[in-house]
Amino acid sequence: MRYKVTFAVGLALGYVLGTRAGRERYEQLKKSARGFAQNPAVRNAAESAGQSGREFAGKAFAAVSEKVGDAVPDSLSGRVRGLRARVGGNGAGEDDWGTSNT
Question: Which among 3, 99, 2 has a CA at the least distance from the CA of 51?
Fold first, then answer.
């Protein structure tokens, strides 16, 4: 699935960058992409995927830190603890990149 999405994004980007249809077609594509991105179903899917990713990252960090012990840098440990707190909390708020977890 990831490869199909990557291919579709690459195809769309190549079309936009390589098209000779002009500014009008570019604006039309941009408007439809914005509409797609603002679709509630798409936003929910993206946010749930992000939430799952954070959960898996926390589990992976725990498994790796058990194996390597104190070799994990403090900066990484602090970041994972912050993610765990957010996952364990109510899930609201913004992450470091300005995206919401709602």
Answer: 99
The closest alpha carbon to 55, from 5, 91, 22, 26, belongs to 91
Per-residue pLDDT reduced to its tens digit, 67-78: 776 666 777 777
Secondary structure (DSSP) of 14-46 = HHHHH--S-HHHHHHHHHHHHHHHT-HHHHHHH
pTM above 0.85, yes or no: no
SS3 percent helix, strand, coil of the chain, rounded to 5, is 75, 0, 20
Which tokens belong to 57? 């990252």
